Amino acid sequence: MKLYLECNMGAAGDMLMAALLELLPGPEPFLQQMNHLGISGVRVEQIPEQKCGVKGSRIRVLVNGEEETVHDVSGKPKAEDAFHEHEEHEAGHLHDHEQGHEHCHEHGKAHAHSHHHFSYEDVRGLIGSMDLPVQVKDDALAVYAQIGKAESQVHGVPMDQIHFHEVGSMDAVTDVVGCCLLFHLLGAEEISASPVHVGSGSVRCAHGILPVPAPATALLLKDIPIYGGRIKGELCTPTGAALLRHFVGRFGEMEPMRVKKIGYGMGVKNFETANCIRAFWGETDGLADQIIEISCNLDDMTPEAVGYASDLLLKNGALDVFVTPISMKKNRPASLLTCLCRPEDREKFSRLILLHTTTLGIRYTDCRREALRRSFETVETPYGPIRFKRGDGYGIRKSKPEYEDVSAAAQKHGVSFSEVCSRARTADSKKRS
């Protein structure tokens, strides 16, 4: 199963938790587990919410019976202004009296509670003590490590000097742990998300007024596609950014999928656009992913040298390599070498092409592909075991014997290639009938 997160209104911990919770058969087991984790004074509730006429839910985290409040850049509380600030539950930013920094209430939150503080190690200890699956605790610790590193870099102090408000910590730990637990319970095989809307304008903290996205959020969103817009306020927060960075494997358009369920996680604020994260849960008939096409023109290499380079690329894991005859300027005959690879392998194959061909430059093209699900199965034939490559999806089934197995069997038994293929297909047909 696949999960796609639509972040047209940014990402916040409580909104993401609400959207994911709507994908489960029922909320009660999750809520009961969250309310018995031993987080001091915390209670998690799911409440119905509507935005622009669309029904969804909101997660309310109560710390000692109270929710945190938000102030926008004008100083108005959240109930008086629906345009500037985006509500969500997060930890407080750095608090370091020794360094002379004022405390920055994250995203304009004003705490009416006493100023007790948790260190980064306190947070780690709290998560480590919870009765949760090991994977959930590891994920939560990794998310908090990302937040801590971002805070450390923004404020120029070591992570062990970062402190969080006690109340804010309880609130944010709940968001992080809750989302990590839901990702674990859902068990998606693939998680992708849209580019992230970060909002625009400014956010108030004790340091003063900061631009949106806030500095820590901007660091956490590095290399992730983001955009601003006409909505004034903070739409993506450090916790939301850290959760996306940790769990999402691809950012881009939604690829074809059969949607089985949709979760709506609502924020507190009201905008012209429905303030929510949508979580799409579904499956695909085949394989859809991104690939890179690397190509170059070669007019001064022998066919043998081009063949050597092609074989080398395939042996190093290229998805495919092919050579096309072309004519260059002055009608010079040449070859177009094309290598298909995964995005993360682009640098490796670029270097191999530059090293093992005569080209002085290469071209890149980002591609999307649709493919049938592939699997292998071995059938027994009079000439020994022969592997079959199978493709399934979109109501289509294909299969064919592997060339290497057929070739080896034909040479070993002194028969033709077509004879081995024919016997293999007969054996495969009997096995599948």
Commentary on this structure:
By secondary structure, this protein is of the alpha+beta class. The protein is built from eleven helices and 23 strands. The strands form eight sheets. It has a six-stranded antiparallel sheet, with helices on both faces. Strands 15-8-1-17-16 form a five-stranded mixed sheet. Strand 19 and strand 20 (333-341) form a beta hairpin. It is globular, with a radius of gyration of 28 Å. Residues 70-115 have low confidence and may be disordered.
Tally of strands: 23
* Helix residue percentage: 25-40%
What is the CA-atom radius of gyration, in angstroms? 28 Å
Stretches where pLDDT falls below 50 for ≥5 residues? 70-115
Largest sheet: 6 strands, antiparallel
Give the N-to-C terminal Cα separation. 29 Å
Binned strand content: 25-35%
Quick check: average pLDDT?
85
Summed up, the helix count is 11
Strand order of the largest sheet: 19-20-18-21-22-23
- Derived from helix and strand composition plus strand pairing, the structural class reads alpha+beta
Q: Choose one word for the global shape.
A: globular
Key features of this structure:
23 strands; 433 residues; six-stranded antiparallel beta sheet; alpha+beta; single chain; five-stranded mixed beta sheet
Provide a compact summary of the structure.
α3 packs antiparallel against α4. The strands form 8 sheets. The chain has a 6-stranded antiparallel sheet with strand order 19-20-18-21-22-23, with helices on both faces. A 5-stranded mixed sheet has the order 15-8-1-17-16. It has a two-stranded antiparallel sheet with strand order 2-3. The chain is α+β, with helices and mostly antiparallel strands.
